[in-house]
Every structure is written in C-alpha cells, then in structure tokens.
Amino acid sequence: MMRGMIRRLAAALVLVAAPAAAQESAPPPATVVVFFDRESIEPLIVEGLASRNSGRPVEANDPVRIASISKLIMALTALRLMDEGKVDLSRDVSDYLGWQVRSPHHPDAPVTLAHLLSHRAGLSDKAGYIIPLGESLAAKFADPAAWRDAGPSGRAAFEYANLGSPLVATVLERASGERYDRLVERLVFAPLGVKACLNWIVCDADMQARAVTLYRDTGEIARDSPDDLPPACTMPVADGQACDLDAYVPGTNASIFSPQGGVRIGMVDLAKIGQALVQLERNQFLSDRAFEVWIYAMINNANHSSPEQTSPDFCGYGLGTYGLVDAPPCRDDLFGDGRERIGHGGEAYGLRSGLWFSMEDGQGVAYFTTQVPPPQGEVETAAADPREVALMRRAFPWLANIHLPTEN
Q: How far apart are CA 189 and CA 167, in angstroms?
C-alpha cells in the first residue's frame, strides 16, 4: 500500500515539476529509480527514451552500463570464490599470476586482492587502465607511471584507481580457471536470478535489443548506440588483433571485460543484488566469514580516515563498497537524512548510477539517470551532483529537508 502510494506521488511530482511546454518538447533524460526492501522491489520513476533513434521509451529493467557499481559486483565475486576455497584475499597476487606485481617505490611489499579492492595498493590511473586484447597486463603493471609513492601496498594512502580492477579480475580467472564473465555469471548473477552481462559482446540478443543508449548533457551520443553493439567489436582490441573472444585464455588479461565498469544490467535486476545483500542472514549468499571480511574492510578503513589514509569523498571504502555518511571527513550524504547506507555509485559517459542500501532496515535503491554534466573534479561523489540529489528527492518525497548542492 505505502509503496504504491509512493510511486503515484512520485509520478505526480514529475508532471507538476515539468511545465507543459517542456513536456511537449524534448523527452526527459532516460531515468529509472527502483526501491527495494527485504520483501519486495518496486519501480518509482521510469521515464525518457532508451534510444532516440528508435523512439523507444525506457523500461524499468532495460539493461544499462552501470559504470563503477561493477566494482561491488567484482568484490562479491571474489568473496564467493573465497567461500569456495579457491582464493585468499590476503595472499600475494603474484602467487596466482606467475609474475611479480610490485610497486617500484616499495618492491618488498606484496600486493593482495584486499589491497586492490580497497584502492590501497598505491596504483594510479595516470598510465591508463584499459589493456586491449593482445596487449600485456604484466607490461602495464611494470610501468612506473602505474604507481604512486603513497606508502606500501595495504598501508598506501587511499586513491580511487580503476587500474586495480583488471588485475583483480585476472587473478580471479587464474584462481578459478574460468573466464571472468562466466565466473561472475556463475557466482553472482545466476544464484540471484539476475539477467546481466559484461560488455555487450557477451550479452544475448534480447539484452542488446533493449540496451539504453547513453547521451552526454549536450545531447550527443556518448556510448551504447546501435552502432556500438554487436556485430561491432565491443571490447578493447590491440591493432592487428582479431576481435575473437573464443581465443582468449583466462588469466591473461581480464581487462577486456571492463571489470571496473562494464556490467550491463537493468535496475530491477540490480535491486535483486541489493536485496540479496540485506537478506544475508536468511540466504547465506555470503558465508558468515565472507560477510565479516566484507563489513570489517569498511569499518577498518573508516577507523583510519585521516587525510593521509582516505579521501574525504569516500567513507570507509573497502572491498568494492563504501558508505554514504555525512560525518567528517566523509561528506557524501546523498539522501540528506543522516542515515548510513552502503553500496557503490557510478559515473561514466553522461550517466550517474547508484546501488545504496541500509543493512539495518533492509531498504535500498537502485537507479540511473543520463545526460548528466561531467564531474567537476577527478572523482565526484553522489551528493556532489545536483541532478542526482534532486532525483532522490523526487523518488522519496518525504526527504523534504534535503540539502541541494549549488551548481557551480
């Protein structure tokens, strides 16, 4: 009853907020907001066009590139593989890879999956983080530009770096013997009844047909138009290298699956992942040990939140998950209600996305919106974007006292 009323109220607010002239002109940016709790999932806002070329309206579970929320899914894959006894998050990743991963600034400090998943290995994105099929992952990490002199791995100052994700995914492949996309399907998507994929090249025809095209705030196509989908090659490939995924050897270069941001999934299915996490006491999707490792990583990093140890834009980042908290040094209270939530946000190609939930009350939200202006800084958190904050106020009208940041 209450959730049905929420949806009707949100829809009414959409109509009231938009003047008639605007409704008759350009359609609103493609946007979906889905609420979930331990028992149910309900779309609150579904508006805009999935593709302007076809004029097809977006639907609640149309697949979209969710950007960095993919890192949370990667962490869950690692934790599930740990439960199978195939990987140790505290072990030197060099042991799995067969070649040494070391910071040139701290050559005696081993690098572990836990360090990489928490962005505390001392990596930098300045060297780039996309390694095409046919290029060497080992060569990328041998480049001094891939590292910062920020302390030894594990004690390095926090800095968000996408480069760690291809290394994590490749280690998971070596530990399991499975291709990364298939590993995520087996350990996360299939057990939760989720339909999702990594990069359009491994998505089925139905998902490709329902793909959401991403547009920049200027209205230009950014990514995922029909021209970007198969039969076009949708993974990075080196010059002269065939776009042949079947020839890929697991454990050599999982960057081709874009583990840092390449998951394609609808918001109803993304909500199922959040719902599973707030139901862990019931479903045992993660073992008690894995749950403790996951939660402790966030708590431990939050307890070391000095300027030298963490960015004030992220609160307690650990194992692909961080918190929404408005308490120094953290300043990312997207909902403006002072309640603590965990999850991950995403930003890429004009898209903003999020999966946020409370382990205490079991409520959460999965969403995306498009045509958002690019971030002002290197990393922009959820509460820093006026569009994202306003979207949450529309979806949850009782957040009447939410603080809307001022646009620059």
A: 21
Helix runs in 143-228, H state only: 164-176, 180-184, 205-209
Q: CA dihedral in degrees (197, 201, 203, 209; nearest 10)? A: 130
CA distances to 34, 136, 270, 361 from 395, in Å:
9, 45, 17, 18
Taking only the tens of pLDDT, the chain with its 408 residues reads 344 444 444 444 443 444 444 445 678 999 999 999 999 999 999 999 999 999 999 999 999 999 999 999 999 999 999 999 999 999 999 999 999 999 999 999 999 999 999 999 999 999 899 999 999 999 999 999 999 999 999 999 988 999 999 999 999 999 999 999 999 999 999 999 999 999 899 999 999 999 999 999 999 999 999 999 999 999 999 999 999 999 899 999 999 999 999 999 999 999 999 999 999 888 889 999 999 999 999 887 764 444 444 445 677 889 999 988 766 666 677 888 878 899 999 999 999 999 999 999 999 999 999 999 987 765 556 656 788 888 999 999 887 554 544 444
Distance between CA atoms of 254 and 163, rounded to whole angstroms?
Answer: 12
Surface-to-core class of residue 235, CB atoms within 10 Å of its CB (0-12 exposed, 13-18 middle, 19+ buried)? buried
The residues pairing with 214 across neighbouring beta strands, listed in sequence order, are 223
Which residues, including other chains, have CB under 8 Å from residue 135's CB and lie 6 or more apart? Answer: 238, 253
How many residues are recorded in the chain?
A: 408
- In the chain, domain spans: 2-64+197-395, 72-184
CB half-sphere exposure, 191, CA atoms < 13 A? 17
Would you tell me which CATH number, out of the four given (3.40.50.261, 3.40.710.10, 3.40.605.10, 2.60.120.260), belongs to the domain 72-184? 3.40.710.10
Distance between CA 354 and CA 339 in Å, rounded?
Answer: 16
The letter for the amino acid at 226 is: P
Neighbour count for residue 172 (Cβ, 10 Å)? 27
Provide the whole-model pTM. Answer: 0.89
